[in-house]
Amino acid sequence: MQPGPRNAITDVPGILVGQVERVDPPYLTGTTVVHVPGTAVGGVDVRGGAPGTRETDLLAPVNSNGGVNAIVLTGGSAFGLDTAGSVMRWLEDRGEGVRVGQGEYDVVPIVPAAVIFDLARGGDFKARPEPSWGADAIAAATDGPVALGNHGAGAGARARSLKGGVGSASVRLDDGTTVGALVVVNAAGSTVDADGNLYGARLGLGGEFAHLRTPVEPPPPAAPGRNLIPGPSMNTVIAIVATDVPLDKAATQRMAMVAHDGLARAIDPIHTLVDGDSIFALSTRTSDEPRLSVTDPMAIGQLESVYAAGARTLSRAIVHAMLNAESVQTPAGTIPSYRDAYPSAFQTD
Prior knowledge:
Radius of gyration: 19 Å
Strand content: 15-25%
Distance between the termini: 28 Å
Shape: globular
Order of helices and strands: EEEEHEEEHEEEEEHEHEEH
Structural class: alpha+beta
Helix content: 10-25%
């Protein structure tokens, strides 16, 4: 196994990613959109205690919808869900969606969404994603490299006392299958162990994280004022795992379920009452070949291989989010990046 050529979710055929962010004070937030022009079978699994989501019920295997056109990951807490509306209108203008009439544009685009809590992180409670940011992000979507760290929905993200952000990774399995992941790391838990090592780095492929060393710096102090509003810290990790293996809806949902293991291997604690941890899964194969089912004994081996790859790839994506995040200044103080908090982790012998 080895990473795909971009080591990003865009290595999965049919996946495009676009992002917008605003980081000039008092803004510190953004929106990330995954566009699937050929549609994809979708699934979702929500395990955090404080989720903010849209159109997740539609993805259940017992419901009739067959696919999704795009998925929105965004800042702004529940207010950020408005960005999905502009994504729908952008898709409608191009005739992408479930056809409900005879007209060229008689479609209803399927656009699930999930949000992170980053309200007031840049200093102003109302400095959050505008509804139009969704359309701006999908219009910018490409199958090229994914901008990591302080981009898109990762602009205002943090992981305990460190700056979080957007991460992505991929793997090409020995049979040619591609699995990719994209994550927005905004966790109540920590991505580093007591010695300052990134939990997920042990799952790197080949020499992916061989440049990292155990740092000598003490951990940064707990950051006061993690949110500029009273009450407990509010967070959430949201992610997408994708593959070009043809999966039916139940098998795709199972991929999302197993992918939560990738969160647990790279963040501790996870799935808390102040996180809304949610993972979407996509199967992008659009051919007429039969789709793998969890009820088919002959498919179990291939399914387990894909599911395990999805979880591990998600852990690696979390590491890339932390390594690419940059320190930011906020009214509550500096949110240091992993690189700035643990510079000795990058020193060569």
